[in-house]
Amino acid sequence: MSTHDFSDYTLRNFLERAVEANPNDPFLIWEEQVVSYVDFNFHVDQAAALWYSLGVRHGDCVSFMVDNSPEFLYAWLGLAKIGGVLVAINTGFKAKEAAYLVDHSQSEFALVGQEHMAVFDKVAQDVPRLKKVLTLGNVDGYDEFMASKESMPAKVPDVTVVGDDLISLIYTSGTTGLPKAVMQSHKNYVLTGQAYAHWMGMEKGDRIYACLPLFHINSQAYSTMGAIGAQGALVLAARFSASKFWPDVKRHGVTVFNFIGAMTVILSKKAPGPEDRDHKVRVAYGVPALPHDVRMEIQERFNLDCVSGFGMSETTFGLLEPLDQPRRAASMGLPRSHPSPELKPTEVMVIDENGNRQPPRQVGELVLRNEAMMLGYFRDPEKTNQVLSDGWLRTGDSAWMDEDGWYYFVDRMKDIVRRRGENVSSLEVELVLNSHDDVMESAVIGVPSELTDEDILAFVVPKPGHDVNPAEVIEWAQERLAFFKIPRYVEVLDALPKTPTAKIEKHRLRSGDYSLGTRVDLGVTRPHATKS
Fold it and tell me: How confident is the model at residue 502 (pLDDT cuts 50, 70, 90)?
């Protein structure tokens, strides 16, 4: 898209320039531990030397199954400095799900938290390609990462890395049921770090609170890179906790945080108290967009600015509500771009099924083109070509634009359920339900949740002569799927509505005009971010 030379837009350059400008300023804050820029970079360089000594080379993928921690950051950014590629596995995955990512990414090395070794032992057995598994914490038979790192010199091996090299594979669910691996580059992450600081009005020394998991692009590109871009500090938390959130934010002087919709709703359900406004937070960014009245209530109660927008694993740019303009109810905002006038701004269109631009207030597919676009899907040129054409990304989401160029989300065209900040493939869940001895077929949809995302409703049809026990079906799913993929509701039907070509008519299930069975609420509502 651009003729700009991005070859030096690498994580190493981005971080080391910030270190040079702020050597003794805090960069990473973890519980009571404060790590300066220069000390953080020292740990990262040791990690780079360790990975290289183990045999990791430019372009090699390394799978991480690690919870939020300083060690995750040291290991990841050290890997990036030698051109290695992070494959961050959702720590809620079971062995089969994790093994697919390790195998598909062709990872020969892995880093695993001690608490996840019970799962990963099975992965290692199923993926013989793995040469070396390091652990965080002592596990019999494995080398411990931090102990190994401490013996290494803080010297990065001489490896050439350029802006278009891969920095991370972000696995995202698709309607095929098999996750796609979004190829994100050093350039995109650097551009995002620079732009995020601008979008959020961040200044040198600002502190961003990161309680979303580091296996998500949000914490990787917005929080971590945003802290570097602002030459501020990253306040890292193990996970979201409603009881610890405000005490942490106050204690560490946090000024910015990212959220998923459920987080703010959970916080707002707590009884009002004096701590509600006793903090330094100016702005919070999150998706999905909060209902207008909920947003106004949260802004007033907590004395901060909530902004929303539109982004994807495929592109960290997209749409954003500008800080300096009045908000429009239900809008995703305006195109968001890099602040440099030398770089081309983000382009956005709504198109019809023939690719023609739709006029204002006409619904169509949202398409984007910008400087921070994915390189494609790893090992999947066919799907890459389906969504990328002439630099334009087909989002698969329907939207419309008003006369002033503000965009509004309508619905996902993809058959994806948004659950607790996670994208869940309905087909993946259906395949598991259909494998139960009593189930002939199933259909999974998203239904409104009190936490602003969606809950999962599964319609199941029993095999002839069988009875379906919803609780047994859920137990079956719990043994095979991450918890956020487990249906909350099960409804048993005699048959599913279908087209003449035998395709399930999910629109009829969503409308409610076909619901003939008894819906059972199994109460499977544990959010990804643990409430405590």
Answer: low
Strand partners, 447: 455
The fold of the 416-521 domain, in CATH, is: GMP Synthetase; Chain A, domain 3 (3.30.300)
Extents of the domains making up the chain: 1-226, 339-414, 416-521
Q: Give this prediction's pTM.
A: 0.85
DSSP per-residue codes, 375-392: --BTT-HHHHHHHEETTE
Indicate whether 92 pLDDT > 60.
Answer: yes
Q: CA 372, CA 193: separation in Å to the nearest integer?
A: 11
How many Å apart are CA 388 and CA 31, to the nearest integer? 42
Whether 305 and 264 have beta carbons less than 8 Å apart is answered as: no
CATH number for 339-414 (one of 2.60.40.10, 2.30.38.10, 3.30.70.2970, 1.10.260.40): it is: 2.30.38.10
First CA to last CA distance, the chain: 46
- Number of Cβ atoms within 10 Å of the Cβ of 312: 21
How distant is the alpha carbon of residue 523 from its chain centre?
Answer: 25
CB contact at 8 A, 254 and 208 = yes
Compute the CA torsion angle 458, 461, 467, 473 (nearest 10 deg).
-30
User: Is 75 in contact with 65 (CB distance < 8 Å)?
Assistant: no
Contact, 62 vs 50, CB < 8 A?
no
**CATH entry 1.20.1730.10 includes domain 1-226:** no
